[in-house]
Amino acid sequence: MKLTREASLIEAILFLENEPLSIDQLEKITGLPKNAVETVLEELKTEYEKDYHGVCLYMSPDEVFFAPKKELWPYLKDRYGKKTGNKLSKAALETLAIIAYRQPITKAEIEAIRGVSSDAMVRLLMSRNLIQETGKKDVPGRPAMYGTTKDFLRAFGLRSIADLPKLEKEEAEKFELNG
């Protein structure tokens, strides 16, 4: 493994930071032009995809950071995983899936799909920063619309919402509004 000096610099910065960084932030910290930062990140990504590394470079359009490789997580989750108090219930996961696949969506639309009140689930998902208000729907009462956050993408290892697994027709129908 022989990294360029620029790659070594960005590797060190990503190691020292506790939060994901954007390409713009890396550009400012390193003084490198944006295209050089992007080239270096591709170099690092290729290097860290090799089997002898325990971490990989996670890159999305908005952020970059190192994360443990998914195949190692079964060995790491007991010590480094989130506590069981942070696990989401089946109802919360169902609500989150509806929001992820139908966003932006109002609470009334979520409830029409689930068939039950979703106030508590929406509050829980917002408190975990997995969803956020994305605006108001242009209908009487102007209800809030919800969508997923960057933390949602990070938690599920997605680069964008387009990376969500594709649903079979039967599964997709479950996310359609009733009536």
UniProtKB/TrEMBL annotation:
UniProt keyword terms in alphabetical order: Cell cycle, Cell division, Chromosome partition, Cytoplasm
InterPro entries attached to this UniProt entry: ScpB_csome_segregation, WH-like_DNA-bd_sf, WH_DNA-bd_sf
Organism: Rarispira pelagica
Keyword Cell division: yes
Name this protein carries in UniProt: SMC-Scp complex subunit ScpB
Origin superkingdom: Bacteria
UniProt-listed Gene3D superfamilies: Winged helix-like DNA-binding domain superfamily/Winged helix DNA-binding domain (1.10.10.10)
KW Cell membrane (keyword) present: no
